[in-house]
Fold:
Amino acid sequence: MDTTPDRRWHRIADALRPETRLLIDGQFRAAAGDETLASINPATGALVANVACGNAADIEAACDIAAKRFRQGVWSRMPLRRRTDILIRLSELIAENRDILAVLDTMEMGKPIAEMCAIDVPGAVLTMRYMAESIDKIAGSAPVTNPDALHYILRQPLGVVGCITPWNYPLMMAVWKIAPALAAGNCVVLKPAEDTSLSALLLGRLFLEAGGPGGVLNVVPGRGAVAGQALARSMQVEKIAFTGSTAIGRQMYRYAADTNLKAVSAELGGKSPQIVLADVEDLSTVAAKVADGLFGNQGEVCSAGSRILVERGIHDEFCELLAAHASRKYRPGDPLDPTTTMGPLVNKAHQGRVLDYIDGARKEGAMPVIGGDPSDCCPDATCFVAPTLFAGVDSRMTIAREEIFGPVGAIIAHNGAEDAVRIANDSPYGLAAGVWTSSLGKAHRIARDLECGMVWINGYMNGDMSQPWGGWKLSGHGRDKCLQALLDNTQSKSVWVTLD
Ligand code: NAD
Structure:
């Protein structure tokens, strides 16, 4: 067997010369100010790039041009087939540039390259293609009305849509936001997260290469409190499509209320339960899948199944199986090695936050099953945290209530379906949930009673483009991916025609 490490991805990384300037009006240009965003590779501590840091003036310039292009109709009134073709071509260009896009995100935020290739890049391609193909499926209506009138209702684009995205799926989240906005005919200003701007800038270049007119998609990296706030407060923006934390999501509604009452869609944090009932047939397979639902992407997933609710009768056996699977599969390693299943967390500050949660869990009396020892994590410049599980958790403990956004699971014992639903719903969040059972009746009853936007039965985090992605409660409002996401980027106009 050939045991030579696969260096292919390192070679691509070494050869990278990423674009670091802002994209405004079809031109890459320097930021108005001198500040840069240092993009640091969390697996090594090395500098990836210094990215131009847009400020409020840059955002205003991007919004000005986006509004101008919208009024000119260069995109919204382009023949539909042409707009579709450009976005289909963009999806092809994302696929053709898959290796570079994958390496950019892996270098900036530490996601294993294997995940980029299996999930993020294909997800971005599919989303862009789906939205492109859906353009001519948007339909108004003509309700039956009085004989002396004709009433028809149009669906029209909003104008300028501001997209603000997080760092955990940099490319895919950017595409989830820009694809429906562009497909519906809007012009876009995209502000990626501070740590992860490079794939968004390449996406902007690919849009131009696909034939997209300048100024229709603008990409302005910058700080959230400065550029993000300026975008969300801009009087020229008709909608903010936001994915990020609940705390900043709240801000979006405030900004909208204080300015032009723009529409807000907010996909926010979660604390999702995975419910395991004692009747599951193959406990070991379920334990492996539950581990995947928790530790994929280092647990930096909004829908991570981080509360594991296990029926008392199988609790101890399940904990052992879960710990064994997690320890075997999820070993932190070099994210550019295609065999690595777990990379570092995004940055030092976030690593510190996750370690504080682990420390706090011990102090609150939770029992470590695996991980949880700071010496498992590299104390140097890197940002790794080993997979960590706590048992003996109850719903009042901080690790059961707050989103940790790292590889930390809280195992909670329950007394059957009804009790599991009660515990699952005892959370301010309501993004997703998993149910593992061989009882059809129990599965559907639990799915009906859970307070969340998405439920997976005997699986976790699977789905396709038809799936409305979004939450209830503090997990936000708005739906990504599905046809609704496209409609949410339009507004209705009623036209009443007097016939006599
Ligand atoms: P974050 O809220 O800190 O930042 C998200 C974006 O908002 C970034 O671009 C940031 O620069 C910007 N921002 C920060 N402060 C701002 C301000 N005052 N005004 C305007 N913009 C501002 O979130 P994060 O740490 O980048 O991402 C992690 C969070 O995202 C987690 O809570 C996770 O659950 C959530 N998330 C949710 C989904 C979903 O679909 N529900 C998907 C992915 C991530």
